[in-house]
Specification:
- The protein has about 180 residues and is largely without helices or strands.
- The protein contains two helices and two strands; from the N terminus they run H-E-H-E.
- The chain has a two-stranded parallel ribbon.
- The longest helix has 9 residues.
- The chain is elongated and about 50 Å long.
């Protein structure tokens, strides 16, 4: 499928595009809110500044995709591959990123408030200036992740995420909900 076919189908009311191949498709600044992209291949796609609110990207491939400035409020990104993706300034408020692979992704100044990042792989990602307010960071791997200036106010995080990692941020433990782990 190409960009025109997707947009024509969307305009006609179609919202189910699971397992579709959209490798390197250009959907810059389009409105695709509520679309089901389960297990779709969107690797290398340009989705920057797109409205992707409420979309389902579960188990999709978004390797090296450009999602900078995109709105992904309430989106399901569980088990998604975002290796090397650009999510700078993206709005991921209340999104589901459980078991997501964000290795090497650029997520600078992104809004992840209220997001669920349970057991997400975030090693080597750049979260400089990102907003993690009230986000669930339990079980995440932040080894070598850049978190300089990130806001983790009221984030759910355990000592496991902090110990043995490179966290270049200054924060007070009083602002964190310590969930503990077994």
């Amino acid at each position: 499928m190409n960009a025109n076919q997707i947009l024509d189908s969307y305009t006609a009311g179609e919202r189910k595009f699971d397992q579709v191949n959209l490798h390197q498709v250009n959907l810059y600044a389009t409105d695709l809110s509520g679309v089901d992209f389960t297990e779709a291949d969107l690797s290398g796609a340009n989705l920057s500044y797109a409205n992707l609110n409420g979309c389902n990207f579960s188990r999709a491939n978004l390797t090296d995709a450009d999602l900078s400035g995109a709105s992904l409020i309430g989106a399901n990104l569980s088990e998604v591959n975002l290796i090397g993706a650009d999510l700078a300034r993206a709005n991921l408020k209340n999104s589901n990123l459980t078991h997501a692979d964000l290795r090497g992704a650029n997520i600078t100044r992104a809004n992840l408030s209220g997001a669920n990042l349970y057991e997400a792989e975030m090693s080597g990602a750049n979260f400089t200036g990102a907003n993690f307010q009230a986000a669930n960071l339990q079980g995440t791997n932040v080894i070598e992740a850049e978190l300089n200036g990130a806001d983790i106010t009221q984030a759910i995080i355990t000592e496991r995420e902090i110990n043995g990692t490179v966290m270049r941020i200054g924060f007070s433990h009083r602002w964190i909900t310590w969930a503990g782990y077994h």
